[in-house]
């Protein structure tokens, strides 16, 4: 009996002395968590009008906090989100979250107002501020552990440097010249820097660009032998190239190799036109890709 009482007293004393330490640990943990919170944007919505938010990148994910809101991407504008109240005069605070293709997480707190102070919000104008207010650590599935923000910086660095390191891969016809200016590699990914020169008086509207592995002997006629490769990212949208103008872009592709009997064809198609161009890349070109220095975002010689 004495042993039982002694054990109980010891346990009670241990609990008494441990609880303050546990409480202090929990408080410290809560303080750290508070420091890591993402400050939400605050906006008002109404039932009879639609609010629109313009994001700096394509919207990838939207999650609504409840049934008080309805939201969706605008048609043909993947960086524009439309939001409105699904219920009239709701009197509680709700929220929604957005993840964009560049790996940025946005949080919004929403209240109802019969007459919102604003109906359109342009986060593109607040790019630097939104990066401080939101989190840039979201990983996108197809990029694996390759942060979208880093991929974007590398695309930008190659585009801004605008250096031509490949001089033997080009196609020309109908007054259009299509070039592969550079091929770079970083962390198991390839970056293709292309340029289109339009020497005619007719603008060149790009319909789409394809990257396809084909057999060398059948490259011109065997569609069944084609193996498409989908780019993970491109630096700019496929904008029209003005008359007597030049347009460039940088494409991010996942790692792949080319067998000696195959080619990589990069085809650019003109919208409502026939001035299509084709580049052919061989295995030796791929293995000669230049490495990128991540720390300084410079291209290694």
Architecture overview:
With 301 residues, the protein is α+β, with helices and mostly antiparallel strands. It folds into two domains: 41-138, Immunoglobulin-like, CATH 2.60.40; 150-299, Immunoglobulins (Immunoglobulin-like, Sandwich), CATH 2.60.40.10. The protein has four helices and 19 strands. Strands 9, 10, 11, 14, 15, 18 and 19 form a seven-stranded mixed β-sheet that branches. The protein has a four-stranded mixed β-sheet with strand order 1-7-6-3, with no helix packed on it. It has a four-stranded mixed β-sheet with strand order 4-5-2-8, with no helix packed on it. The protein is elongated and about 70 Å long. The protein starts with a helix and ends with a strand. 22% of the residues are buried. The mean pLDDT is 82.
CATH class of the largest domain: Mainly Beta
For the CA atoms, what is the radius of gyration? 27 Å
Number of self-contained structural domains? 2
**Quaternary form:** single chain
Question: What is the share of helical residues?
Answer: 10-25%
CATH superfamily label of the largest domain: Immunoglobulins
Give the strand content: 35-45%
Task: Please give a quick description of this structure.
20% of the residues lie in helices and 39% in strands. The chain has 301 residues and is of the alpha+beta class. Strands 9, 10, 11, 14, 15, 18 and 19 form a seven-stranded mixed sheet that branches.
